[in-house]
Amino acid sequence: MFKFGLSSPHISVTIWKNQSEKHESRPKCSIVGQNPGLGILPIAVEALKITIRNGAAAASIFLSAFFLYSLLAYGKILLLAPTLTDLVSDPTILRKNLEAPPEIDEATRRHIRYFLLLGMADWFLSCVIWVMFLVPTIFLSSDAHTGKKVSTKGLLPRIGARWKRPVITSFFMDLISISITLLFLISIGIISVVAKGFLLVALIMATLILGVFCYLYVDAVWMLSLVVSVLEDGSCGLKAIDRAGELMRGKRLQGCAIKLLSVVTRGTIYMLAFAMSKKIEGATQMPMLMVIPQTFLICAFKFFVFVMFTVFYHECKKRDEGVGAESEVGLYEPIASVEA
């Protein structure tokens, strides 16, 4: 039997104590979550620490991807060189085909088929290397961030068990991205037909700004859904995308900011590569000279982005679990015994 006397000091003290204990036992927010603003810097610092602390494992993954990407780039250059030499040595082929498209000769058809087949092979091999780069990087980053033992020995079985999931998720995200792009183009077309003058310019500018934010958000969800596909059991495809959207609630601006940083960094890398190619344009081996530094920077960029989004996933997960725990907390705890 419980005796409840509202005037009893024992009851009031017990309730106050239980409330304070519950308040102390609530999950604390992570360091990243406590930072004001978008919190990009703490995530970047944590990603850098993970890379430095696990230098041997990170280097093995990075160098493997760098070697495969470099090999693919060199192979593409070597395979394209004979065809490009033929086109440059005989520019009349292109001129004749532009003037009379129906009169495309067999040599030109052969070149077109060759370019298409080479492009498809390059895309397929790039996807294979990307998956073999993505999955171990996410596993490594997750284990290091959560304090688990980091080892490259057990990565191959884990890659074999999980590589299909990010592929399926990417397929659905491709469909979503294509649909959003078509919707964006249709919106621009409707606006250009309906509006005129200043209203036309204002609406197009607003649509473009909205499109940029939409692109950043969709890409952030894409990256987070890839991490979900690799780390969470039974999550791939639309389920992983939905899970990523749930995790990003309350952190959408942070995710978009991380993606914006990655887009700016990637653009800077390509601009540097273009500037370097202009400086050594006269060199006969210019494409070969550009492959190594450009591939190195791109691989380093991809590795760091994978690590950052893995850290971001864990921060979103901590926040999601913390919100869920707080919603289940009652006002009072059961009182085992109350003195009269």
UniProtKB/TrEMBL annotation:
Classify the source by domain of life: Eukaryota
Q: Name one GO molecular function term.
A: kinase activity
Q: Which residues cross the membrane?
A: 56-81, 123-146, 167-191, 197-218, 256-276, 288-313
- What are the record keywords, sorted? Kinase, Membrane, Transferase, Transmembrane, Transmembrane helix
* PANTHER family attached to this UniProt entry: ABC TRANSPORTER PERMEASE (PTHR33133:SF39), OS08G0107100 PROTEIN-RELATED (PTHR33133)
Name under which the protein is recorded: Dual specificity protein kinase
Native organism taxonomy = Eukaryota, Viridiplantae, Streptophyta, Embryophyta, Tracheophyta
